[in-house]
Design brief:
about 170 residues; Nucleoside Triphosphate Pyrophosphohydrolase; 12 strands; globular
Length: about 170
Amino acid sequence: MHELRFKEEEFSLHRDEYGRHFIHVYDHESVVILAQNGEHFVLIKQFRPALGREIIQLPGGGVKTGESLEEAVRREMLEETGYECGEVQYLGGCFLAPWLTNEITHVFYTNQVRCVRDPSLESHEKIELVQLSVDDCLQKLKDGTLQDGELAFAVCQAMIRGLLPQRMVK
């Protein structure tokens, strides 16, 4: 059993029988994309209030009503980075904090990107474009410098599917 503590149009806050809180999100899915441009990944850096600092992440965002996951990831990539995607491949969905929320993120990969314009950010977004070499990204994931779960999931999925050349991380 759980107790409803707070309810809003987009989510509700509950407490389980052990006193732990969790969030139930209604009708919300998000998308991110691991975009490889030659030997580099196209990433973003943005401030996240829950962390109180900036973090390097994959481009992405929410899926709008009536929009397919692929349409959403293409739109978000273009808005946040100015890059268009060619063919995209679905890598799977991941729950990043299943003890806290039911929110799912759908992860895509592409190695077909081209810069077509400047990013067109929403007024609340403060995003910096980051080009990180594949080798540097792997090393930073290994040493803990990169801490984003979606990025780690995407790189892992891309590697086990053979989308990234085999590399030895020192």
